[in-house]
Amino acid sequence: MPLLKDVRPGESVRVGKINGTGALRQHFLDMGIIPGTEITVVQLAPMGDPMELRLHGYELTLRLADAGEIDVTPVAEKKEPIHAKVKRRKTDHPGLGEGGKFHAKGDGDPLPEGTVMKFALVGNQNSGKTTLFNRLTGSRQHVGNFPGVTVDRKDGAIKGHPDTIITDLPGIYSMSPYSSEEIVSRSFVLDEKPHAIINIVDSTNIERNMYLTMQLLEMDIPMVVALNMMDELTANGGGIDVNLMEQLLGVPVVPISAAKNEGVSELVAHAVHVAHYRERPVEQDLCGKNENGGAVHRCIHGICHLIEDHAEKAGIPLRFAASKVIEGDELVIEALGLDENERDAMEHIVLQMEKERGLDRSAAIADMRYRFIMELCSAAVTKPTESREHIRSRRIDKLLTGKFTAIPMFILIMGLISWLTFGVIGAWLQDLLASGIDWLTALTDEALTSADVNDVLHGLIIDGIFTGVGSVLSFMPVIMTLFFFLSMLEDSGYIARVAFFMDKLLRKIGLSGRSIVPMLIGFGCSVPAVMSTRTLSSERDRRMTILLTPFMSCTAKMPIYSFFVTAFFPDIGWLIIIGLYLLGILLGILAAVLYKGVLFKGEPVPFVMELPNYRLPGAGNVARLMWEKAKDFLQRAFSVILIATVVIWFLKNFDLHLTLTDDPEKSILAVIAGFFAPVMQPIGLGDWRMLVSLITGFMAKESVVSSFEVLYPDNALLAVSSLSAVCMLVFSLLYTPCVAAIAAIRRELGLKWAAAVVLWQCAVAWLITLLVHAIGMMIGAG
Ligand code: GDP
Ligand code: MG
């Protein structure tokens, strides 16, 4: 049988058997790759791997190696369409306003007065969760972390309902957790037992999105379905029979447009209603009795009866437990505590189902769900032929992911962004802020002088705090501008494309395509780079990516480079600077290979990723994100950096007897530097002043140059050999990231890793500089 990986772009095939095992296979099924699905290969990435597929009306990427697990047959004739044979319910859906209410007024089972209602916002990635969450909560948001993992958690009260709390969960495709973020979402729904789920569904991509809805129904928690992006669907001539869909699903369905703020208040009314009256989904039994002989239906119900008592005891929703048991989810089987006999009975039931249905267990369950979804959609959804947004996306993709244009366009876009960030907007704002800080410093200086404040205190405030915190603070505009562009790229859907065409390259060094983003940001500043690794789906990739960011030369090192090359190599300066960047990248690649072999054995996560339509990001989302980053940065500037500044200032201005000294050579810092001197001698950096500069660079790389200027007055610089200058450059490129970056790493990976990064980067810097120094001595450059 031919394999999916051999199908040529433009051709359509039907999925046959899916080989492989475990989580990846389950993920295929959850993403809609199930026997019988029609798949069109859209294109191969410019480097030939991965491939882009179209199925169930959406685009998905898959590596060729993974596509090799999927048998396909050519689509000969159109398969008979699945007709709307879904049964209509006698009961109306629960909710507001309709005649035969699910419960009559007064005889419901409302929550006790004064309960704070907990809502979970659950949906696929790119379904508009963040947009809706911002609409629902306005500015009353609280950003934190889920316990134990660094996945952003956002909570907030719904506007106009102070007695509510809604949590924005990471995007998930199914209740079979695949990434650490998905585990967070699943455990939240299972363990924290929200009073209601708001399930946001992208109505332009409804088949894939409904797969999660089907599983959420099994959770037996009050739920409202929000059909988002209705503006886009209707503008293209599509539509949804909302009432019919409500009847078929048995939960309230509300069409909304989060971006245009349409239908949101109705959604809130329904959500609050179902939560308050504890209206659970009318029906979870979505397996058809007559579907394909009813094997799956009988199996699910059989297992339900078998485990009913266990599920109740374990506090797991019955229907969910049954599906999971059938799929072979070890965690759930474990939690149920079934005995030998029961396990045996279960296995027999499932085997019988597999035999009758002709599909293996996971595929049979996925197939049952997708079958219901197809029926539901054919009955209730009018699809537009092809939406304008999709046509537009395809056009843009021709350029941005085209075989010959993808990489050049990528370089162009990145170049443009760095030019705008570092050259135009950011730099301009930075200058503005810096002069503001200078002005404030001067003002304070004057005030302190006229108030006749003690010299030590004066020095601390002006030379310590104002200079130190100020220099770091002046970087805020650059960082915010950078984040502005990056969030534009991310929300618009471009980053997913970059990951798509860079995957093959990054795979060679043990990472997956998604790691490209943090590394690119790393050339700007390591702090946001480290923070942005949170979007990576695997913990292994995330750690490895963080450890690689220090090799990407950040902009704060630029002043060091330009200072030394202007002084020593004015003619070939730019060559040396480019060389340094390349050296960093090269060593980063070597380090990646090393990490892959030693620290992070195993494969990078399989690359199964959705390529959403290009969309213009909402201004509100972007503004909010920038505000969050700014707040984050300010908090850091006034905590870690403030303390570090004061410490360094103290060490620079006091001698060992703790008396103020004017002679920097006697300062504690110089003593500490003297301590390191023997180590640094062999690499040509034995001079205590160089050491002091490097130590202050730990605070912020920019201070290397300012320290240097203070410590080498007049022409003393001439005493430095050009070989030492080169050594200084190489060492600066590689040695420990600054305090801010280390603090960020600590937050993501913990203290041990942060300390390890400091030591490791210093060791690498030392070794490489030693090599450079030795080569220099050999060719007589000393
Ligand atoms: P999340 O990944 O689920 O958090 O999705 P986002 O909230 O980031 O939204 C993804 C993209 O869809 C963004 O570019 C939004 O501006 C856009 N978007 C969100 N809601 C709507 C909507 O109702 N209509 C349209 N046309 N676009 C939307
Ligand atoms: Mg989001």
Describe this entry's structure for a reader.
The model is unreliable at 93-105 and 146-150 (pLDDT under 50). The strands form 3 sheets. A 7-stranded mixed sheet has the order 7-8-9-6-10-11-13, sandwiched between helices. Strands 5-1-2-3-4-15 form a 6-stranded antiparallel sheet. It has 782 residues and is an alpha/beta fold. α7 runs antiparallel to α13 (361-380), α9 (295-314) crosses α10 (318-327) and α29 (722-734) runs antiparallel to α31. It is elongated. It contains 31 helices and 15 strands. Magnesium ion binds next to α3.
What percentage of the residues does DSSP assign to strands (E)?
5-15%
In DSSP terms, counting alpha (H) and pi (I) runs of 4 or more, how many helices?
A: 31
Q: Mind telling me the C-alpha Rg?
A: 30 Å
The proportion of residues forming helix, as a percent range, comes to 55-70%
By oligomeric state, this entry counts as single chain
Give the structural class: alpha/beta
Average per-residue pLDDT, rounded, comes to 85
Any idea what the shape is? Answer: elongated
* Low-confidence regions: 93-105, 146-150
Number of beta strands = 15
Question: What is the strand arrangement across the widest sheet?
Answer: 7-8-9-6-10-11-13
Ligand names: guanosine-5'-diphosphate, magnesium ion
The largest sheet is: 7 strands, mixed
What's the end-to-end separation, in Å? 67 Å
Give the topology.
Elements: E1 12-18, H1 22-30, E2 38-44, E3 51-55, E4 58-62, H2 64-67, E5 70-74, E6 117-123, H3 129-137, E7 141-145, E8 152-158, E9 161-168, H4 180-191, E10 196-202, H5 206-217, E11 223-228, H6 230-235, E12 239-240, H7 242-249, E13 253-255, H8 264-276, H9 295-314, H10 318-327, H11 330-336, H12 340-357, H13 361-380, E14 381-382, H14 388-400, H15 406-450, H16 455-473, H17 476-492, H18 494-508, H19 516-522, H20 526-532, H21 539-548, H22 558-568, H23 573-598, E15 609-610, H24 619-637, H25 640-653, H26 668-680, H27 688-697, H28 702-711, H29 722-734, H30 739-749, H31 751-778
Parallel strand pairs: 6-9, 6-10, 10-11, 11-13
Antiparallel strand pairs: 1-2, 1-5, 2-3, 3-4, 4-15, 7-8, 8-9, 12-14
The chain binds guanosine-5'-diphosphate (GDP) and magnesium ion.
